[in-house]
Amino acid sequence: MTKHIGIVACSAEGAALCYRTICAKAPHEMGEHMHPEISMHTHPLGEYMVHIRSGNWKGVAELMLSSADKVFKVGAEFAICPDNTIHEAFEYVVEKSPIPWLHIAEAVAEEAVQRGFLKLAILGTKYLMVGPVYPKTLDKFDISYEIPDENDRIRIDQIIFEELVNGIFPEKSRMYFNEVIQKLKERGCDAAILGCTEIPLIVDPKDCPLPTLDSTRLLAHSALKEAVGK
Fold it and tell me: CB under 8 Å to 186, separation ≥6 — which residues?
């Protein structure tokens, strides 16, 4: 028997990509047209942003816990959150959650170790790039990291919140990500964390200056492994 996956979503595009990835990969493990049972709940992104913008991570945690409680009540046995930024509230969440969680940054770090990367570029919202989510995790894995300079952080954040979360993926924005990643490559990075779950929808690994670590799909793969017992 596989475990029932609970998805605690925040923004629609990243959550949808995570869900689709689980369903697409599962038949390789479970047989044709099969995937684990999956339940998803999300509060509106706007409700999260009120707390994120004010730095109220306990408020973020309460929304996450509300979703976790809902998916637990319909049978979910563990939870994932396809949103990197709100993992800053993770420690508050796991203390009170009715079910265990997988951590998105740990899925990324484990893949980085497996592929032999030593210095990662962190891309995501401005809250993520300057926040503790990836530094705390990467430090545990003895992996170093860099973030874009301030002007690039501001522009990336604008692209995420004005375009990507709304399903808008302009070519000029895709090329901008490549330009920023090239700068980080010149600062010694050997791979780039796509640390907003919508970034994998715009960055193309085929022409990206660095190998990419797709946080959304890596979390989905970790969830599938947990669900099938591997």
Answer: none
Alpha helices (H) along 76-214: 90-96, 104-115, 126-130, 133-140, 150-162, 171-186
| Domain co-membership, 78 together with 116 | no
pLDDT in tens, the chain (230 residues): 899 999 999 999 999 999 999 999 999 999 999 999 999 999 999 999 999 999 999 999 999 999 999 999 999 999 999 999 999 999 999 999 999 999 999 999 999 999 999 999 999 999 999 999 999 999 999 999 999 999 999 999 999 999 999 999 999 999 999 999 999 999 999 999 999 999 999 999 999 999 999 999 999 999 999 999 97
Q: Do residue 149 and residue 139 come from a single domain?
A: yes
Give yes or no: residues 208 and 222 share one domain: no
- A 10 A CB-CB count for 83 gives 29
